[in-house]
Amino acid sequence: MTNIFLKRVYEAYDESDGARILIDRLWPRGVSKEKARLTDWFKEVAPSPELCKWFSHKPERFEEFRDKYLDELRTSDVKLGLINQILMMASKGKVTLLYGSKDQVHNQAQVLFAELTRMMEENKSIG
């Protein structure tokens, strides 16, 4: 069972969200800082601006986008550092990753969530 969950930033705050981390590079339109009620904003864990521009939220590009974003997540020291922070926070309580994409299937949050889940499972099998 994981302590990491996904939620659109536009959905209402809930006390059960635990730590709320925005994982988008850009601030979501129409959301005030008060309404977002963030614990952190890890904008650097988001895909590179170049990759986002290329993907352009086109579902037919999602598979290739996923592969390229995973490569970024696994090779960037900055992204790995933020991933480790998320995993550390999740080891202590619930963490809700917030994203703005309308498409709840073909987005970077799904890729990050899957990678975090994989890493937690890998750590369980090692430890």
Describe the structure.
Helix 3 (62-75) crosses helix 4 (77-92). It is built from 5 helices and 4 strands, in the order E-E-H-E-H-H-H-E-H. It has one domain (4-119). Helix 1 (33-36) links the parallel strand 2 (19-22) and strand 3 (40-41). It has 127 residues and is of the alpha/beta class. It has helices at 33-36, 49-55, 62-75, 77-92, 108-126; strands spanning 4-8, 19-22, 40-41, 95-99. The model has no long low-confidence stretch (mean pLDDT 94). A 4-stranded parallel sheet has the order 1-4-2-3, with helices on one face. It starts with a strand and ends with a helix. It is globular, with a radius of gyration of 14 Å.
Task: Give the arrangement of secondary structure elements.
Blueprint: E1 4-8, E2 19-22, H1 33-36, E3 40-41, H2 49-55, H3 62-75, H4 77-92, E4 95-99, H5 108-126
Parallel strand pairs: 1-4, 2-3, 2-4
Approximate helicity band: 40-55%
Rounded mean pLDDT is 94
In total, how many domains does the architecture comprise?
1
Major sheet size, sense and barrel closure:
4 strands, parallel
Order of helices and strands: EEHEHHHEH
* DSSP strand content: 5-15%
Query: What separation lies between the terminal Cα atoms?
Result: 16 Å
Number of helices, counting only DSSP H or I runs of 4 residues or more:
5
Helix and strand composition category:
alpha/beta
Order of strands, widest sheet:
1-4-2-3
Low-pLDDT runs:
none
Gross morphology: globular
DSSP summary, beta strand count: 4
Query: Which value, in Å, is the CA radius of gyration?
Result: 14 Å
